[in-house]
Specification:
Layout (H helix, E strand, L loop, with lengths): L7 E7 H11 L1 E3 L1 H11 L1 E11 L9 H8 L4 E6 L1 E4 L5 E4 L3 H11 L5 E5 L6 H9 L3 E6 L10 H6 L2 E4 H4 L4 E3 L30
Parallel strand pairs: 1-3, 1-7, 3-4, 7-8, 8-9
Antiparallel strand pairs: 2-10, 5-6
Length: 205
């Protein structure tokens, strides 16, 4: 992993993508540790977290996480999500944040040296290329070790560096099978993409 202490770096975290990848790898993300890990290795000037949130209910299971992030060093970007029922009758939430991520990457590119994108979506290949043309190095964080792999070949080839989350995960995640801890200071909650379809889950687990 090539991170430089003197590089002005910005993190662009697609919340749904990172949740899906970490879940596939058997991890829960600890966002406090994630920010500390990268801040120790490079000059992080901003960490964006993107999430689509249902606005049809008074309380969203994502709210504890977004509240925590907004007070602990993250720049939160949200928009309304769409709720639907899948073929099995389960409630699902859909919200694409690609445009928001692409716009912010383009706007920040002239002011930073390094962009780290937490997504494996090949749709980002074009914006990665455009950011690179402005002289900004781009790393992509996802996984080839998940089943199926969650990083598109086009995006991986375009990036200056690929960060394998299966290798880095121990630095800023905890195993889902880890024994429960006291709730006085709960760990950051999981992304609600599947919580919405699994109401029996405790959002703080």
């Amino acid at each position: 992993m090539n991170l430089k202490k003197d590089e002005k770096t910005c993190l662009f975290i697609d919340g749904s993508s990172l949740y899906s990848t970490s879940r596939s790898l058997g991890f829960d993300v600890d966002y406090k540790k994630l920010l500390e890990f990268f801040a120790a290795k490079t000059h992080v000037i901003r960490a964006y977290y993107y999430a689509a949130i249902l606005d049809t209910e008074d309380y969203s299971p994502l709210k504890p996480l977004t509240d925590w992030l907004s007070y602990n060093g993250y720049f939160l970007v949200t928009k309304p999500a769409r709720e639907f029922t899948d073929s099995t009758g389960k409630r699902r939430v859909k919200g694409n944040m690609d445009i928001e991520i692409a716009v912010d990457m383009m706007e920040m590119a002239p002011h930073i040296d390094h962009a780290i994108l937490f997504s494996g979506d090949s749709d980002f290949r074009r914006v990665v290329e455009a950011v690179q043309r402005q002289g900004t190095r781009v790393s992509v964080a996802s996984s080839m070790r998940s089943s199926p792999p969650l990083i598109g070949d086009d995006l991986r080839r375009q990036a200056d560096q690929f960060l394998e989350l299966a290798s880095l995960g121990a630095n800023f995640t905890r195993r889902q099978t880890e024994p429960s801890r006291p709730r006085a200071n709960p760990a950051p909650v999981r992304h609600p993409a599947d919580q919405m379809s699994e109401p029996e889950d405790d959002p703080l687990n």
